[in-house]
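forwarding from the other thread:

> can someone predict this with MF3?

sure thing
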Amino acid sequence: MVILKSPKEIEKIRVSNQIVADILYSLEAEVEPGIDTLYLNDIAEKMASERDATPAFKGYKGYPFSLCTSVNNVIVHGMPSKKLLVEGDIISIDFGVLYDGYYGDAAVTVPVGIISEQAMRLAQVTKESLYKGIEKAVPNGRLSNISHAVQSHVKAAGYSVVRMFVGHGIGTSLHEDPQVPNFGKPGMGVLLKPGMTLAIEPMVNEKSYDVDILEDGWTAVTKDGGLSAHFEHTVAIAESGPVILSERNGS
Ligand code: MF3
Ligand code: CO
């Protein structure tokens, strides 16, 4: 069941997402060769606690960290560790919080120092595909118009969209209906309405979309070892169209 939110609730979801956006912005600035990803996790936890926000992922189905840090061939759910980032890596940083009863969730892929043209293009196309999807988050559209817009953009660039993981509704739960796939024919799925809040999160692989899950039960990697990128925004559907709640507008 898709839960529609009142304007007041959407404001609360915006507040949670602004906390997420500010923290992601700070984390991005910390990314450089020679740091480890546990350091990023620590910063995220400290900043969340300073704002009285609860990290959303820690403890979710037993996930042990507050952040997902997915480097290079890791698609999503990479676990923070002592392993150092090196020049040329790309890292997806995914973070969520619970604040005042509502969730925020967003992700960015950022370069570690100077990266290859290929890696840069993959990240760029993935980000663009997110915005193509967001454009279709309009009243009276169909859910799969979002999915199709993401996939079309990715396909045209010669990359593939991951099938195993999808975006989701978000509100008083981190994951609500509907699921938001990043692939499919247009014109299908639920009718989009004002008051819906969706986390749209394309995961894009350089080569095939096939996934392997490592023995830790979480880390999702590309089966062929190719690079993967991931961007996510929480978006509200308003009468006037999509409103990106996790786009940072703080100082
Ligand atoms: N952004 C991801 C999601 O919404 C992150 C979840 S990590 C988990 O599914 F640990 F919480 F599962
Ligand atoms: Co999400």
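The chain has one domain: 7-250. thats all i got for now
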